[in-house]
Design goal:
The chain has about 250 residues and is α/β, with parallel strands linked by helices. It has 7 helices and 12 strands. The chain has a 6-stranded mixed beta sheet with strand order 6-9-10-3-11-12, sandwiched between helices. It has a 4-stranded antiparallel beta sheet with strand order 2-1-4-5. The longest helix has 15 residues. The protein is globular. It starts with a strand and ends in a 6-residue tail after the last helix. The structure holds adenosine-5'-diphosphate (ADP) and magnesium ion. Magnesium ion (MG) binds next to helix 1.
Length: about 250
C-alpha cells in the first residue's frame, strides 16, 4: 500500500505565505477531498506537491512511502508515483497523447505493449473521441475534452497517488460524471503495481462528489484546514456555505 503524507506544510508564492501548516494523508484506494473557497490555496497545494516552479516551501514535509518528495524535481515525483491533473491542462503543440504516454511509461519503466488498444479502450470508457488521440495534446480541445484527456492519461499511467485540481472546472455534467466515475473505478481496481489508486481531490463544488465517493473531506480556508469529516461535511457545506467555516 502507498501513503502520501503531508505534514505541517507551509508554502509561499513570492513574499506571500499561502499555506499555513497542512496535514493530510492519502493512502491507496482512498478518496481524500479538499474543498475550499476561491483563493483558499487549493491550487497552491497541488502546485507545491508537484514541485511547480515559483512556490517556496517554508516548513513541513511531503513523503510518498517514506521518500522525501520535496527534495525531488517534478519528473522524479512523477516517477515515484505521484500524478497531477492540473486545473488548467497545458496545450502541447506538435505532440500527441500517444507520444506523451510512450515517453511517460518508458520513463517509469512500464511496458508500452498494447498501448494503442489500451488508449482506444480507455477513450471509449470515458467518451473521449478516438480521433482526438492523434491530435496535438490539448490543442483546440474544449474544456470537457481536456479533462477527459487528462483522465485518460491517469487511467493509462496508473500512478500510485493522483492529485486532481478542480477536475470539475469547465466540464459539462456528462463529462463530469464520466471522469469522476473513471477516477472512482481506479480507486477500486488494482494497477500494474497491484495497488488501487489513492486520490487527493481538490474541488470548489460538491457536485463532483456524487460520482466520486469521498472517504474524508477537509475544508481549506485561508491556507488552513479548518474542518475535517465524513461525506456529510459536503452536505453541511452545501447548506451553510463556506462562511460557516471561516
Ligand atoms: P484556490 O485554488 O483555492 O482558488 P490559489 O492557490 O490559486 O487558490 O491561490 C491562493 C492565493 O495565492 C490567492 O490569494 C492567490 O491570489 C495567490 N496566488 C496564487 N498563485 C499566485 C502567484 N503565482 N503569484 C501571486 N499570488 C498567487
Ligand atoms: Mg484553484
Amino acid at each position: 500500500m502507498s501513503v502520501l503524507a503531508i505534514r505541517g506544510l507551509e508554502a509561499a508564492v513570492g513574499d506571500t505565505q499561502i499555506l499555513h501548516g497542512i496535514d493530510l494523508t492519502v493512502s491507496s484506494g482512498e478518496v481524500q477531498v479538499v474543498m475550499g473557497p476561491n483563493g483558499a490555496g487549493k491550487s497552491t497545494l497541488s502546485a507545491v506537491l508537484m514541485g511547480k516552479p515559483g512556490y517556496r516551501v517554508l516548513a513541513g514535509t511531503v513523503t510518498l512511502d517514506g521518500q522525501d518528495l520535496l527534495a525531488l524535481p517534478a519528473w522524479q515525483r512523477a516517477q515515484a508515483g505521484l500524478h497531477l491533473v492540473a486545473q488548467y491542462p497545458s496545450e502541447v503543440p506538435g505532440v500527441s497523447l500517444g507520444h506523451v504516454m510512450v515517453e511517460a511509461l518508458t520513463a517509469r519503466g512500464q511496458s508500452v505493449d498494447g498501448l494503442d488498444e489500451l488508449l482506444g479502450d480507455e477513450a471509449a470508457r470515458i467518451g473521449f473521441r478516438p480521433e482526438l488521440l492523434h491530435r496535438s495534446l490539448n490543442v483546440d480541445l474544449s474544456g470537457g475534452e481536456k479533462k477527459r484527456n487528462e483522465t485518460l492519461q491517469l487511467a493509462v499511467l496508473r500512478p500510485r497517488i493522483a492529485v486532481l485540481d478542480e477536475l470539475d472546472s469547465g466540464l459539462d455534467i456528462d463529462a463530469l460524471r464520466a471522469c469522476a466515475r473513471r477516477v472512482e473505478d481506479l480507486t477500486n481496481e488494482p494497477g500494474p503495481h497491484g495497488e488501487h489508486l489513492g486520490a487527493l481531490v481538490i474541488t470548489h463544488y460538491n457536485r463532483l462528489l456524487e460520482a466520486l465517493r469521498p472517504d474524508r473531506i477537509h475544508i481549506l480556508v485561508k491556507g488552513r484546514i479548518v474542518a475535517s469529516g465524513g461525506p456529510e461535511l459536503a452536505d453541511q457545506l452545501e447548506r451553510d456555505g463556506y462562511a460557516a467555516f471561516s
